[in-house]
């Protein structure tokens, strides 16, 4: 554990018992307005771990931002010991433009670790990796599903990492989904630096869902409690059911283009042949039922009312533990 006496971030010193709001100074908008990427730091006088909580790497993933916002506004981020650093919106540029990517079209999560002289996204990645990440003992990074594909609340980790698996279980989201680290992603860079990350996926873009938000906030409380960092005024709830570990999965794709209505509830376990939804055309001439090809948990549902043949419409587990 990195028991910081004095924490120095972006040239500013923050002592135990102090708090600070700092900002990355990366680039201005084209209108010359300055852009702040607020970094909210809370330190206890008591020594303890440093937890970094981030969201908004993708500017359209508002639900993650809402989770970190609640953690700050409820003062869950004022630790009993150690330090909590919150960055609710890493990609402020995308968030302003209501866009997943940076103004130059780059996906921040594919340019890590970044460079000081690279593209705008690359510079933001570089600052995050050099100034903030090295101080952290654990990172919790919040994401949502892409477009209309609604993710069940899940923690994504790589296989064969017992410590990470333990923390993912403590977090208590309904699912742990084993997924490989993508090249040049935030998670992969932190992994190479030896800093564990719990990557949360839940909900879909441009959406705030109460169940997903609660799952994220409760998970953070459980993890902080595990490190004895959560103040006693907060109650820690047990997960409603045992965490399901998804070792492997597949996407069920649409066999027809048309109007799509899912019938299955997210998080449900379905047996082979269960009707998951139906696809119709606007003229009342056909109605195709989509059936489960195997037994499994449905942990992503495409909520788009219009789909094309080949679109991913359900994510189903193929191997669980
Ligand atoms: Zn994302």
Give me a quick take on this structure.
This protein has 321 residues and is of the alpha+beta class. The chain is built from 6 helices and 18 strands. Residues 57-58, 61, 143 line the site of zinc ion.
Give the tags.
about 325 residues, alpha+beta, 6 helices, binds zinc ion
Furnish the topology, listing elements before pairings.
Elements: E1 7-9, E2 12-14, E3 19-24, E4 37-43, E5 50-55, H1 62-73, E6 83-87, H2 92-97, H3 120-132, E7 138-143, E8 149-157, H4 162-171, E9 175-178, H5 186-192, E10 197-203, H6 210-226, E11 244-253, E12 258-262, E13 269-270, E14 275-280, E15 287-291, E16 296-302, E17 306-307, E18 312-320
Parallel strand pairs: 5-6, 5-7, 7-10, 8-9, 9-11
Antiparallel strand pairs: 1-2, 3-4, 4-6, 8-10, 8-16, 11-18, 12-14, 12-17, 13-16, 14-15, 16-18
Helix pairs in contact: 1-6
Bound molecules: zinc ion.
Zinc ion binds at residues 57-58, 61, 143.
Q: What small molecules accompany the polymer chains? A: zinc ion
- Helix-strand pattern: EEEEEHEHHEEHEHEHEEEEEEEE
Contiguous uncertain segments of 5+ residues:
none
Shape: globular
Radius of gyration over C-alpha positions, nearest whole angstrom: 21 Å
